[in-house]
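Weekly puzzle thread! Below is a chain. First person to post its structure in token form gets bragging rights.
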Amino acid sequence: MPDATRPDRVSRPFVPRLLRYVGLAVLAATVGSWAVLGAHRGWSQNRVPVNQVDEITGIAYVTYEERFVPGIDWLGAGSALAGVVFALSFLPRLNPNPSNHTR
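Winning reply:
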């Protein structure tokens, strides 16, 4: 006999809920890594220009530092991946039990 003080819980499928959380985690990781690694609002860069001044002549020149800075393409690709994983959670569940199929 069910307990009268607790309402009956509706059981939800585990996999769709897991996919939604994974999609949210991918989105959070994408935005977090984009922000921590530089939050560049242009395209991603593998080499970053660094302005330097010659100590003797005082002439300014540009050198390049080998460093990855994620851009909006990184943000867009991560967001798209998160959206695909989240959308997969709404696909109808395939039932592997052949007895439920209509003939």
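Puzzle host: Confirmed. Bonus trivia for everyone else. The chain has one domain: 15-91.
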